[in-house]
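Posted in: Protein Modeling Q&A

I'm a second-year student putting together a small comparison for a lab meeting, and my supervisor asked me to include a predicted structure for Polyketide cyclase/dehydrase/lipid transport protein. I've never done this before, so apologies if this is the wrong subforum. The sequence is pasted below exactly as I got it from our records. If anyone can share the structure token output, I'd also love a short note on what stands out.
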Amino acid sequence: MWDYQHSVETTATPEVLWHHWSSVAQWPQWNVGIEKIEIEGPFAAGTMFTMTPPGDDPLRMRLTEVVPGKLFTDELDAGDFVVRTVHSLEPAASGKTRVVYRTEISGPAADQVGPQLGPAITADFPDVLAALVRLAES
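Accepted answer (user: helix_wrangler)
Welcome! Here is the predicted structure, written out as tokens:
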């Protein structure tokens, strides 16, 4: 298995951050790693969505867990490996909100694809979280 986590703290409330997360059509406005996104239902577990990174093929993914105001998990099932990202909101000791993105790649091919694919998927996490926080704090 391969995994990576990045987090930031913000003065934005979980409610404001959740609004931006659950407004999927707006993700490309603050996430430069998304050129286009289409969701096939409500922001709820089981809903499929298609995300197109700039210059890449579309990726079909599923929301596997949604806990309003707290976290959501999405998965890309590639057959011999699964890319799972948990997006969570946690109270920080400072009294702020900690925003956490954690990605793991698991499955039979994880040891082969994880070290190359994982860093490519997560490289923009610092920029994405910084943009989300800027928007949520404005």
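A couple of things worth pointing out for your meeting: The mean pLDDT is 96. DSSP finds four helices and seven strands in the chain.
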